[in-house]
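Q: What structure does this chain adopt?
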Amino acid sequence: MALYLLLFKPDCAFAAPLAHAGNSIDAATMQKFDAVFSDFNTPRPALAVAMFKNRELIYQKAYGQANLEHNIPATVDTSFQIDTLAWEFIAYSALMLESQGKIKLGDDIRIYLPELPDLGQKITIDHLLSSTDGIAGYKVLQAVAGWESSGPEQHAAVLQLIKRQKKLNFKPGEEFSPGGDSRFILLARMVEVVSGEPFDAFCKKNIFTPLGMTNTQFVYDDAQFISNRAVPYRNAGNGVYKHDVGARNVPGPVNLYSSIRDLSLWRASLASPAPGKQALAGKLNQPIKLDRGVIIRDIARVSTYGQQHAGQERGISKQYQIGAVGGYASSVFSFPDHDVTVFVLSSGLDYNGSYGMRLASVLLEQQFVEPLTIDYARIERAQVAPAQLSHYAGHYWTAVRAVPAAIHVKDGVLYYGSAGGAPGRELIPLGGARFQLKIEGDDHYFVEFVDGGKGMEMHYSMGASDPVVFERYTPASYTDRELGQFAGTFHNEELNASYVFTVRDGVLSARNLRVGQVDFKPLDADRFSGNKPFMGGLRFLRDSDKEVTGFQIIGDDVRGLQFNKIRAPGV
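A:
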């Protein structure tokens, strides 16, 4: 099939200049805004925030120090690694090409990337934008293989890692995978092929420079100089902060640095798009779907083309995305029915969304239809017979998310907790087999027990989200001798990675020189739960003689990645 490199001149007409912050806010309201950040009166890592109301920038400030060692204060031009907020720019770039007639969302990605292996299924650009592509996630592949991104060559190495995979997680368009960051690498590469220029150059020419986003750049080399960068830290306690670069994002299109001023310019361009840009900006908010037309309502990852999640906050509509890498944290919350948006960037917090929500609440307090925290005493409790509660109790496991859970009964009350741990959180009976999880905050979490075809299932959801399905299992118990059948060396050809499984003091462990040790707890027969996310679940495989021949990794990003047991010569 012929491949064409389509070159085009960028359209530099965007939005009108950004309005000055605070030009419609009275002094009393401004004091309430400032009070949200009162804990920044002592030296702390940087935090920057911006808020829009009615498409107007009404608040934009920076707090703390961009560099604690040299006491350099943060400014609105301080640059932060924005993690998942970069996804919106990747999606926008792909949709821009579509709006210009350069691509179609229904196109097979192999039209533009013919070097990708033919895995027997058509993977479209729409599948990639919707996280329904079925391609294994590169971050888990990296973790299992035991290497971390560094240096400009690692972007190409990730592409090679994706190309070496021999099967998909599922048939594209039929399922949704909340992880799977490989799709962004492929989308960015597709933009490069169609535009004829590097992805960072494409974004700079078509988005960043026209908007005046002078402190925004994709970083392809860890040694690359980043001006005005906030140093990332973590709180070690007692007011002591330490450097925390964390597990770096792979260099390239998912490694974006930006400032709060630049993100304000970006948001203003989407809120008031220039002529000809309205449809493009609007498409970012459209819901993603499966091929059969079903709208995806994941618990909290992605549900729009703009790579944001659509949900609710205290009873009103909200769209949001949060991210964190090393000491950096980023978040954006939008309330479309009230035209309020808030960004927060920081360099010393695991999560900074609470600042954004508190800031937005100053304007929205009278708009919320639900209280800040759920009053569980006002929820009418249904009567459930003790025998029925016992019927729901047991151990549960979700293979896709690789998460174990346990349902306990104590003093006539049902609890949701971790397998082998404390009883956990109370489940309030709502009627039938439906319960509400008692948890702090305003988010409504529900559990419903369903008699599935293979036994009892537990459906876990937040608000009106699609449920995460847990299957009940009967825990297995192994002696050291019985665990010995799983010992040995296992190898995967695609990753060129091996793990040595051993048994000690009743614990099955796997070790890799680059990864370290992973410990496993048995679930049911031949299935184990790991204590590291990239090996959250394993299923051992057997031959016709019941001998262990290998194992498969169980999880969302990578499903069924198989390691085969290496047998000694003559065995």
